[in-house]
Design a protein that fits this description.
Largest sheet: 2 strands, antiparallel
Number of helices: 5
Strand order of the largest sheet: 1-2
Number of strands: 2
GO molecular function, one term: DNA binding
Organism: Eubacterium callanderi
CATH topology: Multidrug-efflux Transporter Regulator, Chain: A, Domain 2
CATH class: Mainly Alpha
Radius of gyration: 20 Å
Keywords: DNA-binding
Order of helices and strands: HHEEHHH
Structural class: mainly alpha
Protein name: DNA-binding transcriptional regulator, MerR family
Number of domains: 1
Shape: elongated
Distance between the termini: 61 Å
InterPro entries: DNA-bd_dom_put_sf, MerR-type_HTH_dom, MerR_fam
Length: about 120
């Protein structure tokens, strides 16, 4: 599929996809004329990259993960370690946001009482 088709299927813009390729997060096949050619596997991989970014994983860490992924299944244990470490980070962020939400709710409660 073309980069335009991948954009439609993933919701990720062509500019971003080219950036991912330039940074080595995606390794793209080329057709006989040198045009990018994406596969079904690329769709899921690009979606996964987006999910990692959405959870706050840094591009440098996604790059390490991507390199290991492209090396093959013998790197599964190392990739699992990366994901476990990132999960700890996400949990810590969630705890912080829960605390921020509690503080915000407390302040809202103060103002609601003042207005009554």
């Amino acid at each position: 599929m073309t980069i335009g088709e991948l954009t439609k299927r993933t919701g990720i813009g062509e500019h971003t996809l080219r950036f991912y390729e330039k940074k080595g997060l995606i390794r793209v096949l080329r057709d006989g004329q040198g045009r990018r050619f994406y596969t079904e596997k690329d769709i899921e991989w690009v979606r996964f990259i987006k999910r990692l970014k959405d959870t706050g994983m840094l591009l440098k860490d996604i790059k390490i993960y991507a390199d290991l992924r492209y090396e093959g299944n013998h790197t599964a244990a190392r990739r699992l370690d990366i994901l476990r470490k990132h999960r700890e980070y996400v949990e810590e962020q969630r705890r912080k946001w829960d605390e921020y939400l509690e503080n915000l709710d407390a302040k809202i409660g103060i103002y609601e009482e003042m207005i009554k």
